[in-house]
Design goal:
Layout: H1 3-28, E1 55-56, E2 73-76, H2 84-93, E3 96-101, H3 105-110, E4 122-125, H4 142-151, H5 156-169, H6 171-185, E5 191-195, H7 202-213, H8 218-226, H9 233-247, H10 254-261, H11 265-279, H12 282-289, H13 294-304
Parallel strand pairs: 2-5, 3-4, 3-5
Antiparallel strand pairs: 1-2
Helix pairs in contact: 5-6, 5-11, 7-8, 9-10, 11-12
């Protein structure tokens, strides 16, 4: 093949990649930004050194005109890269009592929580998915996730959306979220933090469950879910560069990475529709699916609302 022919083929490949990227992004739509929630400034975001999507639910409007107590309920991404200052703040400012990890065993092994640096904190391993769940766990590596996406018939966006019902309604997810809620109920006054890898999907659904049990209006629950999109852009763009270096820039689409790292409204809506279809309502899901009925909900509200 001549040098000119090679250049022409590479140019055609670049143009095709741009066309595919544009079409996929158009079909998927841009990640939606949240609307403000009254009295819930910056969606509770805590500006840590290396914990980019850590947020305090304190201030969210909840049942009976009350609000979630500050510095008690924290949602986050992986703690693996927490700085010494990040850990010191969690222990001193929030009196962290427990950490719930929704990741798989493979993820925990790859990027373990800094348990040896968090003396006195109890860690709970409650995986929301089985090990074989594809496309959302980053269990092996992001590059391998992208290869799996390329081999699948569905788009990455559809694959991620499909696992949301599995997290809430699958046997593993039901057991994990039920255990999670009971841990919060048994808390002894300190803060609890729950996380997955990016703090979007499994931790986001955990936040949905907690907020609904506390009587947070559904529309505010939805906005808090979407608030991840305010805090993950730098992380997503950095990982896009990393994946492109490993796989070759023509083999990866910006929109595929967006599917992994941003909170899309249709992910949330798909999960809520699946719950309604199986249980009739989210209240029934709490009571029947998670064994967290009105009595437990009232106890949770007394503990975490003011």
């Amino acid at each position: 093949m001549s040098q000119d022919a090679g250049k022409s083929q590479r140019k055609e490949a670049r143009e095709h990649a741009r066309e595919v990227r544009a079409q996929y992004a158009h079909e998927m739509g841009a990640p939606q930004l949240p609307e403000e929630v009254p009295g819930f400034n910056e969606f509770g975001h805590i500006p840590f050194d290396h914990l980019h999507n850590t947020r305090d639910l304190g201030g969210l409007p909840a049942a009976d005109g009350r609000r979630v107590r500050p510095a008690k309920l924290l949602r986050s991404g992986c703690l693996h890269k927490a700085s010494e200052q990040d850990i010191a703040r969690l222990l001193a400012d929030y009196h962290l009592e427990g950490v719930v990890d929704f990741r798989t065993a493979l993820e925990r092994e790859k990027e373990p929580d800094p348990r040896d640096r968090m003396e006195g904190v109890v860690f709970y391993d409650f995986p929301a998915f089985d090990e074989e769940t594809v496309g959302i766990t980053h269990g092996a590596s992001l590059a391998e996730d992208m290869k799996a996406f390329s081999a699948a018939a569905a788009t990455p966006h559809q694959m991620v959306m499909d696992v949301y019902p599995q997290a809430l309604l699958g046997k593993t997810g039901l057991a994990s979220y039920a255990s999670f809620m009971d841990v919060l109920l048994e808390g002894d006054g300190g803060a609890y933090l729950w996380h997955c890898t990016e703090g979007k999907d499994r931790a986001g659904l955990g936040a949905v469950i907690v907020e609904r049990a506390l009587g947070v209006p559904e529309e505010y629950v939805r906005q808090d879910y979407l608030a991840t999109n305010l805090f993950v852009r730098n992380r997503a763009e950095g990982l896009l560069d990393e994946i492109s270096r490993k796989l070759g820039v023509l083999k990866v689409l910006d929109a595929e990475v967006d599917s992994l790292f941003y909170a899309f409204a249709d992910y949330y809506e798909c999960a809520m529709s699946a719950v309604d279809e199986q249980f009739g309502s989210f209240d029934n899901y709490l009571a029947e699916g998670l064994n967290f009925g009105l009595e437990k909900q009232q106890a949770l509200r007394e503990k975490y609302l003011a």
